[in-house]
Amino acid sequence: MDVPDDPRIAIDGGTRVLVVTGAGISAESGLATFRGAGGLWEGQRVEDVATPEGFATDPGLVWRFYSARRAAALAAQPNPAHLALAAVEGRLEDRFLLVTQNVDGLHRRAGSRRLIEIHGSLFRTRCSRCDLPPFADESLHESGAPGCERCAARGRRADLRPDIVWFGELLDSDHLRRVEAFAEEGPGERLVFVAVGTSGNVWPVAGFVDLAAAVGGETWLVNLEPAHNDWRFDRIVRGAAGEVLPVLLGVVG
Q1: 213 in the same domain as 158
Q2: 119 an active-site residue?
């Protein structure tokens, strides 16, 4: 159901807050949403730039695509919604957890630290072959895929790849366990779940609202447009996250 104008979420010393953010929150910073009409992802076929098979076929194309995304994300700035979430984290500390489906790094730049980047990060790179730990990387690899030095030292060739969870790849099971533990047994007697700027059709994240509801949590959706899982939420607020969240979370007003 929709809630009246100027809603507030009651957050006291016994409340823990679990937040999920999607592409809508970054769209307010000028970044394109992931999927467009016709199965395109920012003008490219998803199969070509966001799958292991696409990378194996043309790693140079994939790196040109992600280099452009890195450049766009670096040029963007966190908006009031990102800043509001960081402010609430500062107040709640370990009673707050933010899960983002976005890879643009804007939450970190806004100050969020109790953060799970569940689909990875544009600004980390890892090897496509060996167990080289992901490392920070803001470089624009527009001329082709860089090679892994660890593999080269072992006499084999391997390309580095963005540390992104592509279509067809599994999410980190440790991340999922951390979310479940926070929802079910985290500090605080009362759970509030807030989804922001999500399509509601990317699983298993779209099911986190059910996880919260199963433990008696209060569930809120903040979206400009209807989500595929609207009906799962207790309360829905239509509007731009940058306008709604600071008020909803008691950061301003």
Answers
A1: no
A2: yes
